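Task 17 of the worksheet. Students: predict the tertiary structure of the chain below and write it out as structure tokens. Keep your answer in the requested format; marks are given for formatting as well as content.
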Amino acid sequence: MRQTQPSLDLLIALDALLEECSVSGAALRLGLSEPAMSRTLGRIRQAMGDPVLVRSGQRMVPTPRALAVRAEVRSLVEGARRVFTPAVFEPATLRRDFVVLLSDAVATTVCAPLLACVGAAAPGIRLRFVPEGHGDQRALREGTADLEIAVISDPSPETRVEPLVDDHGVGVVRPGHRLLGSPVTPERFAAAEHVVSSRRGRTAGPVDAALAERGLRRRIVGSVPTFTAVLLAVRGSDLVGMAPARMSAPMIDALGLVTFPIPLDLPEMAVSQAWHRRHDADPAHAWLRGQVRALFPQGEVLTSGRDG
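Model answer:
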């Protein structure tokens, strides 16, 4: 005779039988017919090698073996139910670290308000902000980062990407810069000395391609790794920098710098949040994404720096 293999269904049925000490009662509890429950009891007896319930007068009583395993059976069934019951997320009681990859420009806008709102609602959550760099997609895939907020280009197939806001580049100079005395034309823009931001030390990009279409070329005196470094370099010199208007607005305002429209047709920069799809149904992760989303109401982020 083939041995009956234990299963979750048998455990649930055994729990009901030991609770009711009645085939008919267990059948009613589980929504089964009495014959079906009788057959299930037969399978349980075969799997355990024990009668489990035996007749004693007008009722059935558990065997010593059944009594010995009753508490363990109940614990296993309750544990299984917890596994298959959607988690109830309580921000106030959660204890968890989240690693968030950020571009430099995004960090100046997002870090402070996100720390404030998460800290108020979920004090047990610790946010660890990490600058984006090479291998960011691997970080999401391998679980060394939970969320990325940046301009997401060429995401991997298992990465979810949610657009947050469209940004655009503006020129940034110190107050009183000679470019501000009259309209900034492509020729005047190209003639200035520029400092650019590049994590990889690049000194050419969409601005240079747009200038080349007009037969122009700008003079780049150097590159720095972050937009913040660009703004600091601009503040104390006659250099011209470029930064995302919305995302860099707090730093531009804090440094007292002046912005002007770049006289070129440049693509928008779509700032998004990205995560690995294994976090789709994670209630805590979904809550954090909601907090990030709320920082960008209707695609707006704080007002931009002073216009020249």
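Marker's comment: The first strand starts at residue 53 and ends at 56. The radius of gyration is 32 Å.
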